[in-house]
Structure formats: C-alpha cells, structure tokens
Amino acid sequence: VQILKTEILSDNWYTLNKITFNFRKKNGTWSEINREAYDRGNGATILLYNKASKTIILTRQFRLPTFVNGNDDGMLIETCAGQLDQDNPEECIRRETEEETGFTLKDIKKVFEAYMSPGSVTELLYFFIAEYSRDMKTSSGGGIDNEDIEVLEFPFGKALAMMETGEIKDGKTIMLLQYLK
After folding, report:
1. pTM above 0.85, yes or no
2. Max intra-chain CA distance, the chain
3. Which residues contact 125 (CB under 8 A, 6 or more apart)?
4. Chain centroid to CA 88: how far?
5. What is the pLDDT along the chain (181 residues), one digit of tens a residue?
6. Nearest 5 degrees, angle CA 125-CA 59-CA 96?
7. Burial level of 118, CB count in 10 A (0-12/13-18/19+)?
8. 40 φ, ψ to 5°?
C-alpha cells in the first residue's frame, strides 16, 4: 500500500478523511483507490458480572445512528464503553465504568481486542470483563455532561434471551455476552 493523499472532509466531532492510495493486487498490478475513513480514536468496553447472583450490568442510552437507521426510539442496551482519550485501555475502562455505572472496580480482565467496523472506521476496541458486587457501587452512575445513561441489572440468562429477541442489538455487547457464556 502506498498512501498518495489524505484530505480532511470533516473534523467536526472526530475526523473523516478521504484517502487516496495505491494498492498492489494479488496478481502484482497496482490500482489507485479512494476510500473514506472515520477516525474516532480507539475505545474500550466492559461487561460487569456477578457470579453469586448470576447477574450482569448493562447501560441504556440514546444512540442517534441507530435512530436514523430504524431503531424507533434510538435507545440501545449495551456494555459500558468509552473512548481512550489519552488513557491506556485499562485506565479508560475503569474511568468509564465509574462514570457510567457508578461501580469502582477492583480486578478487570482484558479478553480480546477487535476492529468493529473496519471497512470505514479506524477504531480498535479493547474488551474487558470484571466481577462486581454491591459494595463496589460508589455512585449512581449515569454518565457525565450530556450523557443520560440508565444503569441496568439483568439476570445473565435474560440478557442472552434478549439477544435472540433483538432487544440487545449492540455488537460489542453481544460479543462480550457470548464470551462470558
């Protein structure tokens, strides 16, 4: 691959670039290609679980892209997540967990990392799990600034059933529920 030109199309929230590049095909010939890539930075997500009560913690919040793509109220049930900003993935997910869910975690475990939409988005997402208990709840959660996040606690089996009924449609959440299963 040879990058020929990068043009910023938008830097309103994150950065949308138009990238012109040469790509060498399997047969050895070169092809000039234009693609757009949305750079929103990397992120982290976590599934909180309680072994004793067989429950998990999820969040529910409005997601505009789902609304404009047919989700009637735009609300999405998902795992706690956030952008790394200047933090490493573990620091990020600890901060996001406290802000969104109100839980201050002791031990967390990184389980994998994945590109979630590699055809158009540069983001690499780091996936974590952590056990929670009532004594780890240090605030009400709900997010900061304009976030209006509802904290949900479900029996694990119910969350798995919600994937089948389509009540849970978020990719990162489905991946972590399947991992925990």
Report:
1. yes
2. 62
3. 42, 43, 44, 45, 81, 113, 114, 115, 116, 172
4. 15
5. 999 999 999 999 899 999 999 999 999 999 999 999 999 999 999 999 999 999 999 999 999 999 999 999 999 999 999 999 888 999 999 999 999 999 999 899 999 999 999 999 999 999 999 999 999 999 888 887 777 899 999 999 999 999 999 999 999 999 999 999 9
6. 50
7. exposed
8. -115, 10
